[in-house]
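Following up on my earlier thread - several people asked me to post the actual chain instead of describing it. Fair enough. Here it is, all 113 residues.
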Amino acid sequence: MASGFQTFVGSGNLTRDAESRQVGEAEVAKYSIAINGRKDRVLFLDCEQWRPGGVLPYLTKGTSVIVQGELELQTWEKDGQQRSKMVLNVNRLQLNGGRPKREEAEEFAEFPG
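Reply from S.P.:
Thanks for posting it. Predicted structure:
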């Protein structure tokens, strides 16, 4: 169940390699980014990107990205307890250099979600 949407733009580094799975006919990639704030504060944000296409091989731990999307509060029940987390539904992703896995990759690339 989802509720409450807000637009968000942020930059950070992937904290782990992206994982993908098929949902019906579509693919969804899940990853997390760390966004550095003021005074050594770090925001860890879970991201979901539908139909990631050719960007998936580049979404590896440490990769610097700029993400844009809609924040969604996901809620569920586990062991009788109500749980929730904030997830960014990425609709635009920009890679910020780094070392891509493929040799033919450009130093800068942008992938709409």
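Strands lie at 2-14, 19-23, 26-36, 42-50, 64-78, 81-96, 108-112. That should answer part of your original question.
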